[in-house]
Specification:
heterodimer; B: mainly beta; 7-stranded mixed beta sheet; 4-stranded antiparallel beta sheet; globular
Chain lengths: ~110, ~110
């Protein structure tokens, strides 16, 4: 699985959009980008995933660059409950490769 | 909503004790996983299971075993607990139709071995 690089920490004002970057310059053609988050003292929570098109769901939007070497997770209107560690993961999605490998992630703090 | 529950949030055991960590999911998921999470090391896969009575080793299976007698239940067993097994243990499940996109995690069990 390709390696990802994320900033260790970020702050964002409540109500503003939080943009979390992730570099994955060695991503291969069949690898997906996944985002999870972990709120303190809880298990990780799936947010969104994508291959090459931008994706949106009720939680967030995922923007993947055309060369797929980086992506940005966007939380459109951040709330205090979005304070968490956010993990960007790149992996092939197929049977037999369900393992998730979490790096150190980005600690996002939402400021009131 | 998918619910993954773990038997304990906090557990304290003595060195050499046999420890059972239980995980139950209510979504009829085929795949279940046990991870441990340690500061600076991220999440590491211990064992996983694709189906009842099936198990596969993850990255760090040494000192652990698992049991999956029923589809909804996946147990992690520490045969003889040691202090280096003090950690946060996380169980997860996913459906085979999702290609593993979404893993649903339980709240975790913080195990301390003294």
């Amino acid at each position: 699985d390709a390696k990802t690089t994320q900033p260790p920490s970020m702050d964002c004002a409540e109500g503003r959009a939080a943009n979390l970057p992730c570099n994955h310059s060695t991503i291969s053609g069949n690898e997906y980008v996944y985002w999870y988050r972990q709120i303190h003292s809880q298990g990780p929570q799936y947010i969104i995933h994508g291959l090459k098109n931008n994706e949106t769901n009720e939680m967030a939007s995922l923007i993947i660059t055309e060369d797929r070497k980086s992506s940005t997770l966007i939380l459109p209107h951040a709330t205090l409950r979005d304070t968490a560690v956010y993990y960007c993961i790149v992996r092939v999605a197929n049977f037999g490769n369900e393992k998730l490998t979490f790096g150190t992630g980005t600690r996002l703090t939402i400021i009131p | 909503d998918v619910k993954v529950t773990q038997s304990s949030r906090y557990l304290v055991k003595r060195t050499g004790e046999k420890v059972f960590l239980e995980c139950v999911q209510d979504m009829d998921h085929e795949n279940m996983f046990w991870y441990r999470q340690d500061p600076g090391l991220g999440l590491r896969l211990i064992y996983f299971s694709y189906d009842v009575k099936m198990k596969e080793k993850g990255d760090i299976p040494e000192g652990y075993s698992v049991s999956r007698e029923k589809k909804e239940r996946f147990s992690l067993i520490l045969e003889s607990a040691s202090t280096n097994q003090t950690s946060m243990y996380l169980c997860a499940s996913s459906g085979s139709d999702s290609m593993g996109y979404e893993q649903y995690f339980g709240p975790g069990t913080r195990l301390t071995v003294t």
